[in-house]
Every structure is written in structure tokens, then in C-alpha cells.
Write a structure and sequence with these properties.
This protein is mostly helical. It contains 5 helices and no strands.
Length: 125
Amino acid sequence: MRVGTAAIAFHSIVCSGLPSLDPGLRLSQKPVPSPTASAATTTLSIARLALSPSSTVSALSALYLLTPLHPVYLAGVAGVAALLVYEHSLVRPDDLSRVNAAFFTVNGWIGVFYFAVTCTARFLV
């Protein structure tokens, strides 16, 4: 009984705004609006605020205080901070041509570098 009630509640919540699945019903073909320059600027501003290098470095530094790690870890955090600053310098609100380089290539190097430094710092303790 509870499963049936939950399924009905889920269906009514999720599907309340969806169109009918009647095959005879034709939906209007409206084009999907493309993001504007102001939307890109707003998105980048929010990302820079929430995911700023300073907040990431603060979180990584807090890990040093909470776990037994060798001081070489702090040198690695400084390296990660330098890579994050470089990553954020690649993308500008008016020039998004290097987004792939910034968020795929540099993030890949950050991940590999941070993993190696953390393993080294843990091994040296």
C-alpha cells in the first residue's frame, strides 16, 4: 500500500508540469534560446566567486591541519594554487575560446599533480 501511494505521489509531483503522452498531440516546435553574453558573464562571475582558487586552497590547507601529512604537502598546495590561478586566467567573460584548455587540460594536470603530492606527503610521514 505504501509503495503504491509513494508511486502516485511521485508521479503527481514529477509529471504535473509535463505534457500528455498522447501520440496525437503535437507539441509546438519552439527553438531553444542560445545563451547570451550577459548569461555567460553572470555564470563566470558566480563560478569565480564560488569556486575561486582561494576557497579551494583554503580547503586543501585545512586537510593538512586535519590529517597527518608531511610538510611537502603544503608545497603541493602552493603548486595547485598556481595552476588554479593559471586556469582562471585562461578564460575571460568576453573570450570563451579557451574553456576546453582551462577546464579539461589544466584540471587534469591539477588532479594528477595533487594526487602525486598527497601520496608522497602521506608516504613520508
